[in-house]
Amino acid sequence: MFREAREQGAPPKRRWSADMAKRNRQSTSRAQGSTAVRVDAVETGVIRLTDKAGRVRAVLEMGPAGPRLAMMHEDGTVAFELALANDGPSARFADVKGGTRVFVGANRGSARFGMADGAGSQRLYIGVGGGGRPVVSFYDQQQKQTWTAGTRAKGPGTESPSQRVRAPRKKPLLMEPRPPA
Length: 181
Known about the structure:
Elements (H helix, E strand, L loop, with lengths): L1 H6 L10 H10 L2 E2 L2 E2 L10 E5 L5 E7 L4 E6 L5 E8 L2 E7 L5 E7 L4 E6 L5 E7 L5 E6 L5 E6 L31
Antiparallel strand pairs: 1-2, 3-4, 4-5, 5-6, 6-7, 7-8, 8-9, 9-10, 10-11, 11-12
């Protein structure tokens, strides 16, 4: 029957069989208590991933500055943040208290890497400013520069070694569930 339909140029008619039903059940198997759904596209402003206890553990959102992905500890403090703002991408790694420990960022004219201690004081800065001028700086606990190497040129597109590791967000994340529309 299928061969005849192909020879005549018409698509073959398929019958729903027990074998096809079995394959369909396998492709929509349950994962962690929910049914898998496959779609071509989803458009939304915020996606929140929750754990079994209902706590938000990750947020993917389109913020005013651009897309942002944040992953949280069990208590809701941000542990990792990846963002793409108008001036370039950045990544922030935080400790269990939410304080920034490592920051990496790049924009049109520079790239920078900073590390802070447990008290939030910047201890290391590595950057490449406009024109490819590198800077490496170390800081003590009072954030006083103790050693630096590299070009200290000032002007547009240059990075200063005194630039601080980005502080934790002051605004709370959009983590509260929104009522259905």
